[in-house]
């Protein structure tokens, strides 16, 4: 493998110890840990030896036959022939399938391939020939989802992992859809070698995205957890990313108490005379505590040194309090990106930030995404789709200068200019200005 | 202290009106020379409104003049990024920002229709572009996507960018050089539909923003590496283009063909007075009615009293009480305070109660406006369509051995 030229955030083939997402025949994703020598079970779709997958590239499809995997070529799109068939003579509730459930069961047990069962069903189907070609395709697809044992390994790209979690349990990742995550990472200017602050209550999705884009380049990513942990928090999403240890290296975490500069961590007495240490066990315990305190202190020093490139927040806590606590450590011109599944929370935050000179251009946006079914002659937006991917607030940290003044002439012409030639954005800013504030301004 | 809210307000306004962002040529994409201060010989970009950004190079000795004030480049040197800088005339100010691909997208000179953040960020995620990725883009256009890709892949990755329009290619090459991206981006002036990419088994992903992407699909396949899953994205505004592209991708052996549309919905946030419930409205109406009724009765009573006792004391004190035949509204306005003291016990209590409850909300409204709430709605006119994003994957070729052989190998290892 040309691994040296690869991005090294994760391996490019399936390795023992990986958590692999499988796309099951019915389209559902399933995450399974692959360990050398073990058996992988995909529920009713069957089981196979894990070793067969090790060193395989991602993205391939396999059939399970007798606990063995048969590699099958990727599917291509088949043109559907247009015929004169309509559903004119097909009525609901007619008896069309003489093949009984019991007979199908027997077929399955005898080891018949899914395609054989489906073929038999089609042959015995009373009205199959009446169906349109499109309808026949749908029928076959539905039956395949039922009897097929073909699964696909999904490469743990950020896109695929986010989609997996969004499908599995959107609440756990704060409804962050992949388009939202993508925008957050771009708005925060995540790049190799950057230093970032992240508050992630989205099961580590945000942290995973940042680590992936940092690419294991020595830099820093500080995150916040409720409790202090001695090692970086075990985020469930990060497990499915299968990061190398180098990729995770920049990650360290703090709790909110330790974020306060006046806080002194409660640690072991620093100087215990060695004669007072009675046992090796006590010594190792003290050493361990000391190591934890040292780590905490070095993380705090890193934070207090400040000049972080961006602050990314996807938190259950009140967002303004988080910004207040962390904004001093963000570098000038650094991005502040706050995600919420609720527009209202970001509207309130926006109102607060707009009144402050340290936040440039706060904006609230909602993400919008539409996926299409791509089949020859049958291209249309998917019938079922996710309704929302969440809201994002973005602002830039700036330093205020009280002595810098606005341009008077510009200020005067503002109301009329707004109505004629400026964008919606500016009109809002002018409207937002309280009349009282405007009056006060005149008196200065 | 009095000045603070004013300064706040004006900065809030001018923030939107005018900003400057600075670009340090060697450092801005890759983070090399990661200084938080502006150095000599840097590139700057200025923003006229939130949507219009302009760019210039910080050159000592040069001036920057605009209707938002006059600035000397040399004054900016040594300032931290994010600084607010007052004009030399004392009127107007700018913000000096560290350049990012996102700001550059707002600032860049448009030579073509450009890609914006929703599409750019989504494509980068889908194509799995990250540190060290090797990427092809065609055409270069105005370079909006190129900057984002260069930022994400960093110095260990590489972007091959192709532009068939000679003048645009030249311009883009100049910009890449100025932004310190020359060693990350290779720009070729070439028509890829005709001449391909001159690369074989070399890249992880291909992005095609071409009028006829289907003509470049086979070339893209050649350029993509075959030892792992690679991906392609075709960016086309029309459905007809999508259908032709899909069929070309399918014929070339690409799989997992899918298509997306993505947009950003900007929201307007406004502060409005807390909404009044109709119960409150109804209560107010009822009270107003009650007061009018009391006053009507009082007027009648006063009229009766004055008729019964034309020269009595009460009439004197109760001057307002209908003698002058004022309209009810006028009575309400001027009356309550005075009458409260003079009316007899029962009336007094009742009237006071009514008047107070009537007066209080209006008094509140006069000195403290009702509480405001933040509300938001999608702005009325937005970009409704950019392009369709057609994606596909190219899997490593099937092993030449028969599937049965693969199986027995698997058994041996286990």
UniProtKB/TrEMBL annotation, chain A:
| GO BP annotations listed | tRNA methylation
User: Which species is this UniProt entry from?
Assistant: Mycena sanguinolenta
Q: Does the keyword Transport apply?
A: no
User: Looking at the record's lineage, which domain of life comes first?
Assistant: Eukaryota
List the PANTHER family hit by this protein, alphabetically: TRANSLATION INITIATION FACTOR EIF3-RELATED, TRNA (ADENINE(58)-N(1))-METHYLTRANSFERASE NON-CATALYTIC SUBUNIT TRM6
Secretion signal span: none
Q: Write down what this protein is called.
A: tRNA (adenine(58)-N(1))-methyltransferase non-catalytic subunit TRM6
A Gene Ontology cellular component where this protein is annotated is: nucleus
* Record localization: Nucleus
- Which keywords does this chain's UniProt record carry? Nucleus, tRNA processing
Spell out the family assignment given in the record's similarity comment. Belongs to the TRM6/GCD10 family.
UniProtKB/TrEMBL annotation, chain B:
**Pfam families from the UniProt entry:** GCD14
- Give its localization: Nucleus
- SUPFAM superfamilies, alphabetically? S-adenosyl-L-methionine-dependent methyltransferases
Stretches the record annotates as Disordered = 299-373, 395-414
**In this protein, which residues make up the domain named tRNA (adenine(58)-N(1))-methyltransferase catalytic subunit TRM61 C-terminal?**
92-393
Q: Which CDD domains match?
A: AdoMet_MTases
Question: Could you tell me what reaction this enzyme catalyses?
Answer: adenosine(58) in tRNA + S-adenosyl-L-methionine = N(1)-methyladenosine(58) in tRNA + S-adenosyl-L-homocysteine + H(+)
Record protein name field: tRNA (adenine(58)-N(1))-methyltransferase catalytic subunit TRM61
Q: Which organism is it from?
A: Mycena sanguinolenta
